[in-house]
Every structure is written in C-alpha cells, then in structure tokens.
Amino acid sequence: MIEIPGTPGTLTGLVLRITQCVLAVGSISYMVTSGGFFSYTAFCYLIAAMGLQVIWSFGLAVLDTFALVRKKTLLSPVLVSLFVVGDWVTSTLSLAGASSSAGVTVLYFGDLGSCTFQVECWKYQLSVALAFLCWITIFISSLTTLWLLASG
C-alpha cells in the first residue's frame, strides 16, 4: 500500500484525528451550554453523532500514537477495511446531524425569528459550524482510507 497524507499511523493521520476530536467536542460543548437544546430533535441527534465521533476519533488517535511510538504500520487490509467502514459511518452520521441542525437553526432562528436570546442563537450557529468543520476532516479521513483500501 502507498503512503498518502492522512494515512492511519502517520503524523498527518494523528493530526486529522485530533482535529476531529477537538471540533466535535467544541460542537458538543457549545450546544450543551445553550439552554433548551433538548427541545429540538435535530440538536439532540447532533449531540449523539458528535459524541460517537469523539469516541471513534479519540480511539484512532490513540492507535495512531501507539503506531508512531512503536514505529508500526497500520496498513493491513483488515485494519484499513475497519477504518473505511468506521470513517464512512461516522461521516454519514455527522453530516446528517450537522445538516439537520443547520436546517432547524435557519428555520426557527432565521426565518421565523423566534430567537429571543441572541447569545443562545450564536451558540447554536457556532455548534453547527463546528460540526460541519468536523465533517470536512472526517470526509478527508474517509477518502484517504478508501483510497488506501482501493490501492492495496
């Protein structure tokens, strides 16, 4: 298998996983600190999707760190297949959560003008923006692992 930037077990792969974790935690924290997010199903789904993303990315970041410290490769076909499936599942869930939350944010707080607390509205919007940024990094990882699987 060839080495592509973002490959599991490399420094760029570790940076991608840590970035995914940080953005997902940021999205969760902004959503949870805003009042009344639990009234909207899309926001609850975003929290669940980002929570799963934190677990997945943190686990792979630990695995990448282990591989870097031990100078091992994570390019066996079985591991790469696992990474492909996990990345694509979490990517799909994260995009669905970010998109549905963005739709609710625009509808309720933009079109209907029902946001009476400006600080809360900014927290919702920032949480959704961080979720989309997280999805971009997940998508990069997904494409990288899929490319590795196809080339191996």
TrEMBL record:
It is a multi-pass membrane protein. GO terms for cellular component: plasma membrane. Its main location: membrane. It comes from the Eukaryota. Homodimer and heterodimers. Belongs to the Casparian strip membrane proteins (CASP) family. This is CASP-like protein. It comes from Arabis alpina.
